[in-house]
Amino acid sequence: MEKIRILGNPSLRLKGKVRISGSKNAVLPAIAAALLTEERLQLQNIPRVKDVFTILTLMEELGARSKLKNNSISIRAKRITSDEASYELVRSMRASILVLGPLLARYGKAVVALPGGCAIGSRPIDLHISGMQKLGASIALEHGYIRAEAPRLRGADVEFEKKTVGGTENLLMAATLAQGETVLRNCALEPEVVNLCELLVKMGARIDGIGEEVIRIRGVKELGGATHEIIPDRIEAGTFLVAGALAQGDITLENVDPRHLVTVIERLLFSGARVDGLDDRTLRVVGSAEIKPQDITTSPYPGFPTDMQAQFMVLMTQASGVSIITETIFDRRFSHVNELLRLGASIEVHGDKAIVKGKTPLSGAEVIATDLRASASLILAGLIARGETVINDVEHLDRGYERIEEKLKLLGASIERIKY
Ligand code: EPZ
Asked: Is 197 a catalytic residue?
């Protein structure tokens, strides 16, 4: 097991440059897309995070061969030798569900464990399943598995009842090899969905409406290989922007795409921080002594991202006044609150709202991480808490952040990883 230990300092000033890694949430569907072709995919700007290693293990079990060198992956599913995504893999990473669409499209069969819930909510996949059924798949749910079969998927008109990133990605991939045209309505607009569409088009897919709510896909007989760059991780970038605002820092973020962070930047500017786009791949954040409170409501892209909610909550604990944070995407995404209370924060949760009172000085304590973004918020809080903070269960953190403690150390934080 490993822990992160931070020697916090309320007058910490983080300064320097940090290079943001590739997006975890863009690379996972891109790797799953390798199942759609017998040719090779070359993916660049890959984050070396735990979820990448997990999905590569799953892909190898399905018959793919992959090589990860520095931040590039070469992967090829010349033959699919198994159609089963086992429970132990799916349980460790619910994004494994993203192999359902590609397996059905290329192989006609898929047996994928139901992902179950996680610390941030129930995480159903009913929209993935109903979409596949509309494309002609017959699906049985038994013994905790989805058993899906489709000799040949047929194009259909599918409207998502609610915005789903994974559902949009799964149906997009399935539709590329379906017979005829598929229309997907109420699609998720996240940059990670756009990045996947761009990869699929490079592979030979015929997609219109990329980045829009209605996407048309005309099925083709087969897809080919491609070389593709994964977009920067906008949530890692947002996390470092908040770190700069929180610790009155002066941090330059390299390898970011400012266009993916418009709402987050807006909120940081409103809180009193300065955020400048130095060019189309660089952002500079300068924190201010006075942090203004504000109400935030998470919503699907381009709204305020749910994946930034926990991090922003920490900033609001240092704001001079009351902020109300409303979480509309997941039904239980406040598990970080109890841990922040241990650090001295003053937060009350009422249903989907967290009322954050600032400015509250934080004091270091031992805390436990429950999910990926909650872990990041505890690190942010530990940086400015007086005294030592120890964060247990950092494997959550490693799922989505590449060497975050090394990046923060280079910016002046007293932070280390300890094995025990
Ligand atoms: C993706 O999860 C991200 N994960 C999540 O990031 C992110 O929080 C989420 O999108 C929302 O932006 C990856 O891309 C790997 P959804 P996903 O389907 O696709 C409900 C992180 O920290 N829903 O957009 O699973 C669902 O319960 C992770 O990096 C259904 O009801 O999210 C939720 O309330 C956490 N039925 C809402 O829709 C379905 O079939 C949005 O979920 C599917 C989803």
From this structure: no
Q: Of 213, 217, 188, which is closest to residue 201 (Cα–Cα)? A: 217
Strands 109-113 and 145-149: antiparallel
pLDDT at residue 118, as a whole number: 66
162-202 pLDDT per residue, tens: 999 999 999 999 999 999 999 999 999 999 999 999 999 99
Residue nearest to atom 38 of ligand 1 (CA): 164
Q: Which ligand 1 atom is nearest residue 188's CA?
A: 24
Ligand 1: distance of its center to the CA of 167 in Å? 8
**pTM score above 0.70:** yes
Q: How far is the CA of 354 from the centre of ligand 1 (A)?
A: 20
**Ligand 1 surroundings by CB, under 6 angstroms:** 24-25, 28, 95, 121, 123-128, 162, 164-167, 188, 192, 306-307, 329-330, 372-373, 400
Per-residue pLDDT of 37-90, as tens digits, reads 999 999 999 999 999 999 999 999 999 999 999 999 999 999 999 988 888 888
Dist CA 375 CA 396 (whole Å) = 7
User: Residue 184 C-alpha to ligand 1 middle, in angstroms?
Assistant: 17
The single residue of 7, 111, 118, 355 carrying the catalytic annotation is 118
